[in-house]
Design goal:
Pathway: Cell wall biogenesis; peptidoglycan biosynthesis. The chain is an alpha+beta fold and 324 residues long. It folds into three domains: 89 residues, Rossmann fold (3-Layer(aba) Sandwich), CATH 3.40.50.20; 136 residues, D-amino Acid Aminotransferase, Chain A, domain 1, CATH 3.30.470.20; 61 residues, ATP-grasp fold, A domain (Dna Ligase, domain 1), CATH 3.30.1490. Helix content is 35%, strand content 20%. Helix 2 crosses helix 12. The chain is globular and about 60 Å long.
Length: 324
């Protein structure tokens, strides 16, 4: 990238840290993005909205920001709304898509309305008949807080006697709880770049975790999980998985970039959509950079490509390149 091209981005804020349960991961993501943008000669600066106010964000006079926040207050539409009000172009999805993508229940409702495959589910509260839920969905099943990410608060329940403890663990993190049919099979993720008709899937990543347990520790802090990219799948399954991932991304209204998690059922090789991440990890263990590398795009170039898409989504269709 020439110095002139780098200068055209103006003053860039990299937003990371925040106040969610995923702040630790966000710090790793944001540090990587910040270093990558600086290596490209871009005038990039760190900003932690968990430690500093919106008034300070406005005072920085950023020409655009790269959102490297995960979870609540950064990935759920709240920050995106603030940036719209402040007039600061930002990366990733807009207010509505960010909010919907952060809510796994609403996401599933949308996908089912679009005829897209996703595991059967039930929404739990304190009055739910947990034995009936187990009978309806079958065991094992997955219990999770629908507004958290990075596998935080998720429990695999193999016996009805464990449902209450799983519910309590998820309810401690969220107002509602999602119980989901457990699909036995292989685990994949599909990174998507772009928006609307131009959205495209990157090479698929297969995730093989120790004993099938792709938890917070195995995601970010160990080298025990194996990743295969491009995933070893035949062409037809690859094409179908990428097709439904892009369809799922578009159904939620995502733009810029994102990642769709998919399970491939062992019994019939049918893919099922799990969730969409509108601000995926960008750490050394993260999967979007891995998929980009398989497509011949370096980490630094990926960060620049994402930053280039930064824009205001409300009231403007034009991609912002600078404040002029």
């Amino acid at each position: 990238m020439s110095a002139e091209d780098a200068k055209a981005f103006g003053k860039v804020g990299v937003l990371f840290g925040g106040r969610s349960a995923e702040a630790e991961v966000s710090n790793m993501s944001g540090s990587g993005v910040l270093a990558a943008l600086k290596a490209k000669g871009i005038d990039a600066h760190a900003f932690d909205p968990g430690q500093r106010s919106l008034a300070e964000l406005a005072a920085e006079q950023f020409d655009r920001v790269f959102i490297a926040l995960h979870g609540r207050y950064g990935e759920d539409g709240s920050l995106q709304g603030a940036l719209e009000l402040l007039g600061i172009p930002y990366t990733g999805s807009g207010v509505m898509a960010s909010s919907v993508g952060m809510d796994k229940i609403t996401t599933k409702i949308l996908w089912l309305a679009e005829g897209l495959p996703t595991p059967a589910y039930a929404v739990l509260n304190a009055q739910s008949d947990l034995n009936k839920v187990a009978a309806d969905l079958g065991l094992p099943l997955i219990v999770k807080p629908p507004h958290e990410g990075s596998t935080i608060g998720i429990t695999k329940v193999t016996e009805s006697s464990g449902l209450q403890a799983a519910y309590d663990a998820a309810a401690a993190l969220d107002d509602s709880v999602l119980a989901e049919e457990f699909v036995t099979g292989r685990e994949f993720t599909v990174a998507v770049l772009g928006s609307g008709a131009n959205a495209r899937a990157l090479p698929i990543v297969e995730i093989v975790a120790p004993e099938g347990n792709y938890d917070y520790q195995n995601k970010y802090f160990t080298d025990d999980t194996q990743y295969f990219c491009p995933a070893p799948l035949d062409a037809a399954i690859t094409a179908e998985m990428q097709r439904i991932a892009v369809a799922a991304y578009r159904a939620v209204g995502c733009e810029g970039w994102g990642r769709v998690d998919v399970l491939l059922r062992a019994s019939d090789n049918r893919p099922f959509l799990l969730e969409v991440n509108t601000s995926p990890g960008m750490t050394g263990h993260s999967l979007v950079p891995m998929a980009a590398r398989a497509a011949g795009v370096s980490y630094e170039d990926l960060c620049v490509e994402i930053l280039r898409t930064a824009r205001l989504k409300i009231g403007s269709k034009a991609t912002v390149t600078s404040k002029g």
